[in-house]
Amino acid sequence: MTTIEIIGRAKEKARLEKILQSNQAEFLALYGRRRVGKTFLIRQYLKKELVFDFSGSKEASKKQQLNNFFAEYLARTQGKQETLVPTSWQMAFRYLADYLSGLSGNATKQVVFLDEMPWLDTPKSDFISALEFFLESTRIKNGSRFIDSVWFGIVLDSERPYPCKRRTL
After folding, report:
1. Cβ-Cβ contacts under 8 Å for 42 (sequence gap 6 or more)
2. What is the predicted pLDDT for the residue at 137?
């Protein structure tokens, strides 16, 4: 396998490394102009920690987005867990929580990467409320030991920040 070196981006890599070394759960919203390498940076720099990698599809229906999410879920679980396509984002995140809780613990953070979030958060999709519920309920249900091992990276292709109360690069 060929290793691709990331040239430059020292500031961004240093911040990603700081987040990886943190002893708490982190949520990162990364945004900027299209085609400048945001997704490449996350996938290359964090490839050893990536445990789930899903991209939204432009102009896809909620049903198609959930089908695409489920395809990634099936690939990660090798079809050994849930077998029904989720009908809501809340159900999809329940599947994700079950998958993550079954992963063996290790010393490094486990990265869940959700790319193109604005394409997932369409009107009436309930994506954001389901994501917030997932993050909060997982923290309460599993305690800090589990949630501290999960880090979320969201890439946004926009000049204007997407509503997010968490840290940004």
Report:
1. 16, 30, 113, 115, 153, 155
2. 79
The candidate with the shortest Cα–Cα distance to 53, out of 36, 71, 37, 35, is: 71
Which pair of structure tokens corresponds to residue 43?
């996938």
107 burial level (CB within 10 Å; 0-12, 13-18, 19+): exposed
* pTM, entire model: 0.81
pLDDT value for 156: 57
Distance CA 29, CA 147 (A): 18
d(CA 50, CA 133): 22
Q: Please give the structure tokens belonging to residue 127.
A: 């994506």
pLDDT digit string, tens, across residues 130-163: 998 888 877 655 544 444 445 565 555 554 444 4
The whole-angstrom separation of Cα 19 and Cα 49 is 12
DSSP 47: T
55 beta partners? 115
